Amino acid sequence: MKLFFHDAQSRHRPTQYLVHGKIVEPLERPERPAVMRQSLEGCGLVAAAPESAGLEPILAVHAGHYVDFLASAYDEFRSLPNAGPEVLPNVHPYGTASVGLEPRPEPRTKGILGRTGWYIGDLSCAMMADTFDAALHSADSAVAAARAVMTGEPAAYALCRPPGHHAYADRASGFCFLNNAAIAAQELRKRFERVAILDFDTHHGDGTQAIFYHRDDVFFASTHTDPSNYYPHYFGYADERGAGAGRGCNLNLPLAPGSGDDVYADAVERLADAVSAFGAQALVISAGWDAHRDDPLSRLTVTTAVYETLGVLLAGLALPSVIVQEGGYSLAAVAEAAPAFVTAFRAGHRVA
User: Fold this and answer.
1) Whole-angstrom Cα distance, residue 65 to residue 183?
2) Angstrom distances, CA of residue 325 to CA of 7, 63, 159
3) Could you report how far apart the first and last alpha carbons of the chain are, in Å?
4) Of 179, 214, 134, which Cα lies nearest the Cα of 284?
5) Whole-number Å distance between alpha carbons of 280 and 193
6) What mean pLDDT comes out for the span 153-158?
7) Start and end of every Histone deacetylase domain (predicted)?
8) pLDDT digits (tens, 9 = 90+) for 267-311
9) What are phi and psi of 218, to 5 degrees?
10) Residue 93's pLDDT is what?
11) Could you write out the three-class secondary structure of 71-126?
């Protein structure tokens, strides 16, 4: 199995993250991919740098005016009087939360402060000089993995960093700027008529859900910590089933805080059954290791052992598969969880 990662993805090194009312050092650290790469190469994956895919695959998912903002935001923000070291919003537009959030038009405000609040959804997405370039290379890794699968590889791993599943078509949130899983799924649609995304990160992939909420060609299935008192708070509830043509093509299985291995594995098995019932011809796995009990953001009690179980379960779908890296913030936990999953997945994965 090929492992795609570009060194430029580690150049995104923000210093500010607001959590529980305090500015702290970001948990989404640049050391994460190095630790995972070493552990994944240790179980047989072969690392390769992705080629640049350009903007076409990104613009197939994201609004052009949003991508333009990401490209120019840092330089514009730094030109403000007394500007801080990184781009962060200090104002947000008021609006009614919508499950199937459609991409918004370009904002009427043209100043960098107003546009920052429009395009950056929370205070976990500080942008510095190399952020956009890192996000582009992260998306390149997802595209390269999808194209490898489209040309005959049974599976490929995109070691995406920054991660992506909280990024909307026109908004950054939750450490995410470009939605790598959505970009990979859209790329797979060039060959496969029906694609599924299965997300087992401890946080709901609200951006991914929103991008495909009205579509019937991409099925989104997620298990995650109950969002009623957990990020992303506003989405990820069980009654969110898709809308319009996409009705029935969205499945959320929220888990109560404290849930352990058996409950977590049972939820993923239910998601896998739904993927099969949908008739998916290819699979994107949004793989987050942050449900692990040792992760600083986890409210679940799952152990490393469950990721081996998940690998067996998802290998059993026998689908061409792109594994896209999402969360996981304990370096010790990701060094165990990622290879446990991949080893089991590779051992059992046979494309039909």
Assistant:
1) 17
2) 15, 23, 5
3) 17
4) 179
5) 8
6) 98
7) 28-344
8) 999 999 999 999 999 999 999 999 999 999 999 999 999 999 999
9) -130, 120
10) 85
11) HHHHHHHHCCCCCCCCECCCCCCCCCCCCCCCCCCCCCCCCHHHHHHHHECCCCCC
* pLDDT for residue 100 is more than 90: no
Q: Quick check: is 166 catalytic?
A: yes
Beta strands 321-325 and 17-19, pairing class: unpaired
- The predicted model scores a pTM of 0.97
Q: Give the pLDDT band of residue 96 (cuts 50, 70, 90).
A: low
Token couple for 138: 């992260």
Give the Cα separation of 192 and 186 in Å (integer): 10
Pairing of strands 22-24, 17-19: antiparallel
d(CA 169, CA 175): 15
Residue type, 244: G
Q: Are strands 155-158 and 321-325 parallel, antiparallel or unpaired?
A: parallel
Q: Provide the pLDDT confidence category of residue 95 given band limits of 50, 70 and 90.
A: low
Q: One of 165, 166, 292, 349 is an active-site residue; which one?
A: 166
d(CA 12, CA 4): 17
Residue 321, beta-bridge partner list: 155, 283
